[in-house]
Amino acid sequence: MIGARALMRTLVDSGVDVCFMNPGTSEMHFVHELDAVPRMRGVLALFEGVATGAADGYARMTGRPAAVLLHLGPGLGNGLANLHNARRAHTPVVVIVGAHATYHEHYDAPLQSDIEGVARNVSGWYRVSASARDVGRDAAAAVAASLQAPGQVVTLVLPADASWSEGAAPARPRALPTAQPVDGEAVDQAAAVLARREPTLLLLGGAGTGERGLRAASRIRAATGARMLGEVFPARQPRGAGVPPLERLAYLAEAAQEQLQGIRHIVLAGARSPVSFFAYPGRPSDLVPDGASVHTLADGTEDVPATLEALADRVAPGTVPQLGGLAPPAAPAGGLDVNALAAAVGATLPQNAIVVDEAQTSSLGLPAATANAARHDWITETGGAIGQGLPTALGAAIAAPDRQVLCVQADGSALYTHQALWTMAREQANVTTILVNNDAYAILRLELQRVGAGPAGEAGPAARRMLDLSGPPIDHAAIARGFGVDAVRASTAGELVAALRRAYAEPGPHLIEAAVPPLL
Ligand SMILES: Cc1ncc(C[n+]2csc(CCOP(=O)(O)OP(=O)(O)O)c2C)c(N)n1
Ligand SMILES: [Mg+2]
Do residues 336 and 514 lie in contact, with contact meaning Cβ atoms separated by under 8 Å? Predict the structure, then answer.
């Protein structure tokens, strides 16, 4: 058996049966084996950032890694930004990088480069399969490593000769790694902090924003009066009717400081201590209020939901979680702005939808307008690297083909990875995209002021031109149609509501280009 077949067999035997890919010459044996191992589903992406973002969205919904097949250092580099977001989400991803045959390396052929230097940036585990004999075992180790709590990106380099040579064999799947057990001492300490009845914040992150974590945290809040917040950008959060509501820490440091004002203790459950997203001259990076203490109940390597449940059983026995009700907003009418956009989403959101939020400034009203919508999952851009929305929505749709995916997508961010639309059309992914066209990098107009570069109104024309996308105007609906996706335009709230209802009722991908004036 050749290495490529042993690799593919080991992956599917280990539960990795989707591979998002953008292959090249060094990966042709792997591509060829797709017909020999039909349990592996190959999904072609036209840019590596689409493949890596899709793998992130897929695993956020399944809890299982997808594989990503990339072409040497440049292919891996193109996929890096969304691997960065995956790393920040603690998403398991098995990256396979095809490389030159081992004996070809020292010729320094044009595609030769430092693959390891690129991979280490995002990978918690890295290995080169030295020969065909090693490939099966290395693949099984890679899958297991990706699932090491809290989950990580792993990179396995597959030299072309290891891929095409005989002498390989599939390896048995490895036992799944388990999270660290509940730390009883940390539970004792948190219980003691809560017993003081001083203003205490329970900050949830990672697996803590899943349903079990939310239910336990809600019990703790109800019994002790503690406050609870989620990290700024959770990997995945169930929301809406039947789920305990969770507000998130604000992106803007000054807003977060207001949320944290008066807090004496912060108890971390899968989250990190709050810091400002960026540094701003004269403002603090550390957002912990002066004099407040920070206690780690559970970090990401531990079983965060089980720890929260242990704490709830201690401080809130017999207390039940408080669940959100079903009270979606009325369908909006009139002009389209960020509030009408949010109301349209909340009013029409189908049961069990998956919302991928890369709406940037246009997401302002979304959390409130969907808090009491039908139950859904919310996916955010964990690492701040834009160009994540469309690819992640694609991956989520492939992970959950029976659910509706709504991608609320800002225009500037969309333009990094528009090619995801073609894969959505080809795979008939159930993704409805609202492409929020505000003709601008609106957030950067705000950041221009916040960093102290000068008030936006007074920025010179050369600077303003760098944050403006209006000339020439970009026709996102036409781009979508060019990729084979049904697309319409909405310029009123009523048109958006009607287009959403139609898109949800029909299978396959739809794009609605919504003209929304920029907030800034
Ligand atoms: C990979 C990457 N490149 C660049 C940036 C810097 N950046 C942050 S927001 C932004 C513009 C976002 O514009 P858009 O998506 O249209 O959202 P809007 O601010 O208009 O709501 C840019 C370029 C980034 N965060 N990540
Ligand atoms: Mg914009």
Answer: yes
Angstrom distance (rounded) from CA 312 to CA 204: 14
C-beta neighbour count of 254 within 10 angstroms: 12
CA 181 to chain centre: 26
Structural element, H or E, at residue 445: helix 442-450
Q: Return the best residue to mutate from 277, 386, 439, 467 for the ligand 1 pocket (most ligand atoms within 8 A of CB).
A: 386
Name, in order, each residue with C-beta under 8 angstroms of 216's C-beta and a sequence gap of 6 or more.
305, 308, 309, 311, 312, 321
Residue 214 and residue 281: Cα distance in Å, rounded? 36
Q: Is 221 left (phi over 0), alpha (psi -120 to 50) or beta?
A: alpha
Task: Give the pTM.
Answer: 0.98
Give the ligand 1 atom nearest the CA of 361: 21
pLDDT digits 0-9 by tens, 317-374: 999 999 999 999 999 999 999 999 999 999 999 999 999 999 999 999 999 999 999 9
Q: Which helix (H) or strand (E) holds 515?
A: strand 510-515
Q: Pick the atom of ligand 1 nearest to 415's CA.
A: 15
Query: How remote is the CA of residue 208 from the centroid of ligand 1, in Å?
Result: 28
For the chain, the first-to-last Cα distance in angstroms comes to 60
Q: Tell how strand 93-99 and strand 67-71 pair up.
A: parallel
Q: What residues are paired with 190 via a beta bridge?
A: none
**Burial environment of residue 444 by CB neighbours within 10 A (0 to 12, 13 to 18, 19 or more):** middle
Bridging pattern class, strands 353-358 and 293-298:
unpaired
Pair of tokens at residue 58 = 């897929």
> For position 458, what pLDDT does the model report?
78
The answer to whether the CB of 411 falls within 8 A of the CB of 475 is no
Phi, psi at 100, each rounded to 5°: -60, 150
Ligand 1 atom at shortest distance from the alpha carbon of 358: 15
Measured CA to CA, the distance from residue 213 to residue 243 in angstroms comes to 11
Task: Find out whether 390 and 414 touch, Cβ atoms under 8 Å.
Answer: yes
Count of CB atoms within 10 A of residue 387's CB?
24
Q: Are 346 and 369 in contact (CB under 8 A)?
A: yes
Distance CA 487, CA 452 (A): 40
- Which atom of ligand 1 lies closest to the CA of 362? 21
Report H helices in 26-152: 28-33, 48-62, 72-78, 80-89, 115-119, 132-146
Cis amide prior to 38 (ω within 30 degrees): no
CA 141 – CA 119 distance, rounded (Å): 17
Task: Answer whether residue 456 shows pLDDT above 70.
Answer: no
Q: Distance from the CA of 22 to the center of ligand 1, in angstroms?
A: 25
Which among 154, 71, 158 has a CA at the least distance from the CA of 120?
154
Ligand 1 interacting residues, C-beta cut-off 6 A: 81, 360-362, 384-387, 410-413, 438, 440-444
